[in-house]
Amino acid sequence: MTAPSSPSYPSPEIERYELSEPRRYVFELERRDFIRLFGAGLVVAVAAADALAQESGRARPQGRGDTPDLAAWIHIDENGRAHVNTGKVEIGQNIRTSLSQTVADELRVPVAFVTLVMADTDKTPFDMGTFGSMTTPRMAPVLAKAAATAREMLIDLAASRLHVDRSALFARDGQVVASNGLALGYAELAKGQALTGTIASPPLDAPAAWKIRGTAVPKVDGRDFVTGRHQYAADVTLPGLVYGRIVRPDAFGASLAAVDDARAKAIPGVSVVRDGDFLGVVAPTERAAARAANAVQARWNTQPGQPSSETVYDYFKKNAEGRAQTPAIESIQVPSGARTFEASYRIPYIAHTPLEPRAAVAVWEGDKLTVWTGTQRPFGVRTELAEAFHIPEERVRVIVPDMGSGYGGKHTGDAAIEAARLAKAAGKPVKLVWTRAEEFTWAYFRPAGVIDIKSAVDANGRIVAWAFDNWNSGGAGLQTPYDVPAKAQVFHSTKSPLRQGSYRALAATANNYAREMHMDEMARALGIDAVEFRNRHLKDDRLRAVLAAVGQKIGWPKPSADGRALGIACGTEKAGYVATAAEVSRPSASSGFKLERVVIAFECGAIVNPDGLKNQVEGSVVQGLGGALFEAIDFADGRVRNPTMEQYRVPRFKDVPVIDTILIDRKDIPSAGAGESSMICVAPAIGSAVRAFGKLDTALPVRLLSA
Amino acid sequence: MYNRRMARYVLRVNGQDREVDAEPGDSLLSVLRYDFGLTGSRYGCGEGQCGACSVLLDGNAARSCVTRVGSVGGKSIVTIEGLAAGTSGSRDAGSHHLPGLHPVQQAFLETEAFQCGYCTSGMIMATVGLLKTNPNPSEQDIARLMDRSVCRCGTYPRIVKAVRLAAERMRATNAVAGGPR
Predict the structure, then answer these.
(1) Residue from the list B87, B116, B143 with its beta carbon closest to the beta carbon of A405
(2) pLDDT tens for residues A56-104?
(3) In whole angstroms, what is the distance from residue A123 CA to residue A125 CA?
(4) For residue A599, with 0-12 CB atoms within 10 Å meaning exposed, 13-18 middle and 19 or more buried, which class applies?
(5) Per the CB < 8 Å rule, is B109 touching A223?
(6) Beta partners for A85?
(7) Is A399 helix (H, G, I), strand (E, B) or coil?
(8) The complex's ipTM?
(9) pLDDT in tens, A504-552
(10) Which terminus of chain B faces fewer neighbouring Cβ atoms within 10 Å, N or C?
(11) Which of A688, A597, A694, A2 is nearest to A345 (CA)?
């Protein structure tokens, strides 16, 4: 075991998170409570089990005693403004804007009239977390219904005020308008009201009728970012704030043997906190805290014989966990006479490297703990804190300021727990900001893995058998989208020497890399065009469409100049369909390769914000370049050997090729999330292109083996 | 013993003289963020490798996380908070064409050259520094000169657009004003 002590850390796969039970949320409001909570106006609550549409909640009398699990609510205040409360988190994926668009559109108000209150466990309803590209397919539709319900309630109010039939009324631009020209503003209608409703089945706009959704609405708080005014967790200040640092172990799995803190304590105002293997300092200033942490002399007992980045792949295969499963490669039946292809791919651990390191500000007021921190799971972190300090969840409040990104790397509450522990000892609010080296070492990683593939092709160039074994990296994207009569695909859960967890697109990146590289290898060996070979095995029109779009744009199969080469890959994940093509060159025979151009086609149903989507898709491509071209955690003996931005290279300006982005808008298909799946084919597109120059290492990042 | 090297420094920040007690080797970023409350400069790596902490020192972009307080005496320091002189601070949520932004800030806002925004302050300061030395950079120039600023969300293509847009507007303004000074 190498993970630090305390809470249980999440496994990499989203399906496991979905097993967690949302807590019951009591929501019954007397008028005076309503006024106290909201001021006045009307509120539409969204039940978590909203799909089972309840009866119309319009002007429902209070005190029914039902206690629905809430997913969100919308409050229309006496100024006619809408306040949307959701436990979702803004990570940079732009949902503060896209959800505002959704509500504004259905409510018939300008976007500026909508404010989102997000990710504050005392103010927003329970939410499992912001991951898995679920906000757009799940939260946006229920908010649309809630907004439409609010609109219909306002129309009802207007009908009774104007003594006309509601069918003669419609909502427009923050008003309810009658055919005779009379109009009542939402502010006027909401004044003095204390109405609650749960969403019914209001008429919703079809995507073709969207007016605000489907347009490139600018980021609602964009100005706060260009002025530096936005406050991330590390920017929160409180009266009496003091500063913490953690004294980290020498290596993963180390236990604390002895501490000499005399030099640290000699610094004025410094205290040292030890609790088991937890060792930290608190100081009156941030710089004193850093000096004190450096001054603490700690001796750690380390564990010998831990796997390294070289030996970990063998380690995975020898350390299966849970129910032993027969490898697919051993169970698959290969028809006699078929030509077989076998390959093994290795995927290293990589680090999320969010530019905002983990940070938290924690304060105890009596027995109530409040923590500001960047996490994708505010309610999960509340649970972690409650467990760590043996207090009920009701006494813990987690507030998540819009984050400096996460990419799946901020599901846990490490910094929150550490800051809270220090604050408890200090009796004062404590701020803790992780250093970059801590971020590279003590966060968690995208799982490494080994993927073995065995396939068989008949004389007609049809794949007749497909066996696919993934050791440790994860089950997302395990299933091939290709039509194969005999297939076996197995994810083998194993022990991991490093802490690992979620990452943008999860294992779909690794699995699509291995699968698409193997498709390419078969096509090459058989002398069949790589697009034609895929199309022979693809029944899904949406996947065929993105593949065709990318092929056409990059001029497949002919590169744009002599000496260059093209590669292509496609896949589907989380209801998004993607194809990616890459063009590479070889500046000189000894220089490896250079990525010249990437073309990506992406389709995720009806597009909510075309500019936001383009930004996400381009960003996915650039982030995907990291794992494809350079990123890999180098470790041995329980230590990360490249824990700096200088040593661990992430994509930079000069690495970015020409990127052409094709977005296919399918108004007839419900919108899916788009922050993740567009990255899954970057690496195999590049890898298959580079194959034109020689044999590749079977490990990511893509690397030509010297001849 | 640990206060022995402490000294009082007077720093010229955003046009004002401000005092701080620090050791000469303390980072300028730490002073800006923790002593002066100017949190718009972000901590990203502490190695001078990501650029999130970039500020202007006498008009040139510098990484405040690896700039020692003891080395900046007498220099003019400008942070993201002080970039738009005369910023009113008033907000009009309905409009994106607002007074009080530096042309580089305006260009980043209009091209939406960010996602999470954590790199944005530093990118803007790096751009202001770049345009001072090269008012008409090509895309290759931008990639070369900004290469030590990291956007982990990968909005580089948009940042390049923002830099070009800002450069174009600033050249036009300077032409009207009688050329760059």
Answers:
(1) B116
(2) 332 232 222 233 456 778 999 999 999 999 989 999 989 999 999 999 9
(3) 7
(4) buried
(5) yes
(6) A73, A117
(7) strand
(8) 0.92
(9) 988 999 999 999 999 999 999 999 999 999 999 999 999 999 999 999 9
(10) C
(11) A688
For the beta carbon of residue A291, count every other beta carbon within 10 angstroms: 20
Whether B142 has its CB under 8 Å from any CB of chain A: the answer is yes
Say yes or no for a CB contact (<8 Å) between A232 and B98: no
Contact A226 B108 (CB under 8 A): yes
Q: At A72, which helix (H) or strand (E)?
A: strand A70-76
| pLDDT higher than threshold 70 for residue A23 | no
Q: Is A410 in a helix, a strand, or coil?
A: coil
Q: Which of A226, A354, A611 sits opposite B105 (nearest CB)?
A: A226
Contact A435 B151 (CB under 8 A): no
CB-nearest to A92 from B23, B115, B156 is B115
How far, in Å, are A436, B39, B119, B165 from residue B52 at the CA level?
12, 11, 5, 21
A243-256 pLDDT tens trace? 999 999 999 999 99
Q: How confident is the model at residue A29 (pLDDT cuts 50, 70, 90)?
A: low
| Chain A residues touching residue B97 (CB < 8 angstroms) | none
CB of A543 closer than 8 Å to CB of A570: yes
Nearest CA in chain B to A403: B116
Prediction pTM value: 0.91
Distance CA A604, CA A595 (A): 26
Distance CA A701, CA A686 (A): 10
B154 → closest Cβ in A112, A403, A622: A622
Q: Please give the residue of chain A at the shortest CA–CA distance from B90.
A: A223
B-chain residues within 8 Å CB-CB of A230? 117
Contact A356 B42 (CB under 8 A): yes
Q: Are the beta carbons of A405 and B118 separated by less than 8 Å?
A: yes
Q: How far is A112 from chain B (nearest CA, A)?
A: 6
Residue type, B34: Y
The half-sphere exposure of B168 on its side-chain side, counting CA atoms within 13 A, is 10
More confident residue, A590 or A169: A169
Mutate to test the interface with B, among A96, A225, A402 (most CBs of B within 10 A): A225
Q: In whole angstroms, give the CA distance from residue A116 to residue A202.
A: 22
Query: How many C-beta atoms lie closer than 10 Å to residue B74's C-beta?
Result: 8
Cβ <8 Å between A235 and B39 = yes
What pLDDT does A59 receive?
A: 29
pLDDT tens profile A299-346 = 999 999 999 999 999 999 999 988 878 999 999 999 999 999 999 999
Q: How confident is the model at residue B4 (pLDDT cuts 50, 70, 90)?
A: low
Yes or no: say if A498 and A637 are a contact pair by the CB < 8 Å rule. Answer: no
Q: Which of residues 67-126 of B touch A (CB under 8 A)?
A: 79-81, 84, 87, 91, 93-94, 96, 98, 101, 105-106, 108-109, 112, 114-121, 124
CA angle A647, A243, A238 (to 5 degrees): 120
A405/B148 touch (CB, cutoff 8 Å), yes or no = no
For the cut 50, the answer to whether the pLDDT of residue B86 exceeds it is no
Task: Say what the alpha-carbon torsion angle A115, A120, A123, A125 is, to the nearest 10 degrees.
Answer: 90
Chain A nearest CA to B122, separation (Å): 9
Is residue B94's pLDDT more than 90?
Answer: no
pLDDT in tens, B110-121: 999 999 999 999
Three-state secondary structure of chain B: CCCCCCEEEEEEECCEEEEEEECCCCEHHHHHHHHCCCCCCCCCCCCCCCCCCEEEECCEEEEHHHCEHHHCCCCEEECHHHHCCCCCCCCCCCCCCCCCCCHHHHHHHHHCCCCCCCCHHHHHHHHHHHHHHCCCCCHHHHHHHCCCCCCCCCCHHHHHHHHHHHHHHHHHHHHHCCCCC
